[in-house]
Specification:
By secondary structure, the chain is α+β, with helices and mostly antiparallel strands. The chain has five helices and 13 strands. The strands form four sheets. A five-stranded mixed sheet has the order 2-1-7-4-5, covered by helices on one side.
Length: about 240
């Protein structure tokens, strides 16, 4: 196997390796999903893509650095890594058992969105919509979830808002899904409106993962559902 240098340490890795293989070979006890691997040379640095195989040569140099993500970089309906899909699936299953055990839940095959069919409307919303106690509610997961949280949530466009409510739009704003023409068409066809609920910068703190189930130790879908209920109940406080 080729001998390479990772963060100044000589290690052996397979001749065809992923960034995760290089992290594991380094001996560092870190979660690969929270780190980026950069191949360094005198001309330029090349950021390696997760889960992609690269040809490795003797003497190659790599740096393992903390991964970075910005709220403005949120993208939607891309190709989520398998570990992100597994994490979303676990969270949806756990939340469904608690909050939606008497109704159906639809999770997109690629974990881009989830629809909870039995979302209980707060009393003010029920009074504004006689006969509608339970409605559909959709969350759209950024490709970067859980590093980035969901941005707002989606309710049936036919709902009437209470007199003291606000921030219910037929498109998304501030980096939420629903800003492009294609995304707005998705909302229109699904008969959705977006309820604005931004999580303050720095407030979202997901767990650092050694294994997928560690998500329970940080912010997760439970907190998002709680926030959705709270913002509908106290609309003037957000």
């Amino acid at each position: 196997m080729p001998t390479v240098i990772v963060n100044g340490k000589r290690v052996n890795v397979p001749s065809s390796a992923t960034p995760e293989d290089i992290i594991n070979a380094s001996g560092r006890r870190v979660n690969p999903s929270t780190r980026a691997v950069i191949k360094t040379n005198t001309a330029n640095n090349d950021r390696m893509k997760p889960y992609q195989n690269y040809t490795v040569h003797d003497g190659d140099k790599y740096k393992i650095v903390p991964d970075r993500v910005k709220a403005a970089d949120a993208t939607y309906f891309g190709c989520k890594e398998p570990w992100r899909q597994e994490l979303i699936t676990q969270q949806v299953f756990q939340v469904s058992e608690k909050f939606f055990k008497r109704s159906t839940v639809e999770l997109d095959d690629d974990c881009n969105w989830v629809v909870f069919n039995g979302f209980l409307l707060p009393e003010e919303w029920q009074r504004a919509n006689p006969g509608q106690k339970f409605v559909r509610m959709m969350l759209i997961f950024p490709d970067q979830y859980p590093d980035l949280p969901t941005n707002g949530f989606y309710l049936p466009a036919s709902l009437q808002i209470p007199a003291n409510a606000q921030h219910f739009y037929d498109r998304g704003y501030g980096g939420a899904f629903g800003q492009t023409a294609e995304e707005m068409e998705f909302m229109r066809q699904g008969q959705w409106k977006w309820y604005c609920t931004h999580i303050k910068p720095g407030a979202w703190q997901p767990a650092r993962l050694r294994e997928i189930s560690d998500w329970r130790y940080g912010d997760n879908l439970w907190d998002i559902i709680t926030l959705c209920i709270d913002v509908l109940t106290h609309p003037l406080d957000d």
